[in-house]
Design goal:
This protein is of the alpha+beta class. The chain has 3 helices and 8 strands, in the order E-E-H-H-E-E-E-E-E-E-H. 24% of the residues lie in helices and 46% in strands. Strands 1-2-8-7-6-5-4-3 form an 8-stranded antiparallel beta sheet.
Length: 153
Amino acid sequence: MMNAQISIVGNRLQVSRTFRFPRDRVFSWWSSAEKLQQWSGCKEAARCEIKMDFRVGGSFTQKMQIAGAGEFTISGQYDEILEPERIVYHAKSGPVTTEVTVDFIERGGDTQVVITHEGCPNEGFSKIVSQGLAETLEALELLLSDGSCRIHS
C-alpha cells in the first residue's frame, strides 16, 4: 500500500496515490453512488450520503456527518467523463468552488489516481481538503484490498 503524495502550489492542490489494481476496477468505485459512499469522506465522517447523476452535465451531492463539526455538503456538476481515464467536475464546498480533475493512469497492472483541485482560495483550505482526500483514498485501498472499510461501517 502506498501513501498519498500531496502537492500544494498557489491555488492548485494535487493528491496522488497508486493502487495495485486494474484501472477499470478502481474507476468503478468512483462512478456509482452505492460504491462511492462506502469509502468517500475523512476519518471523522460518521455517515456519507451521495446522490449522483454520473454523466456529463449531471450533478452530485455528497452529505457527510462529521464528528464534532456537524453536517458538511459538497455539490457539483460533471464537466467531462472519459471512462476509465478521467472525471472532471466543479465542486462547491460552502462558498468555494473548485475545478476537480481525477485522472486514472495505468502503470503496468497498477493504477495511479491523480486528483487536482484548481481554484483553492488559500493554503488552509488546501490542507484540509488534502487531508480528507488522503484519508478517503486510504479507505478505498482497504475496500479494494479486502472489502473492508473503517469509514461509514
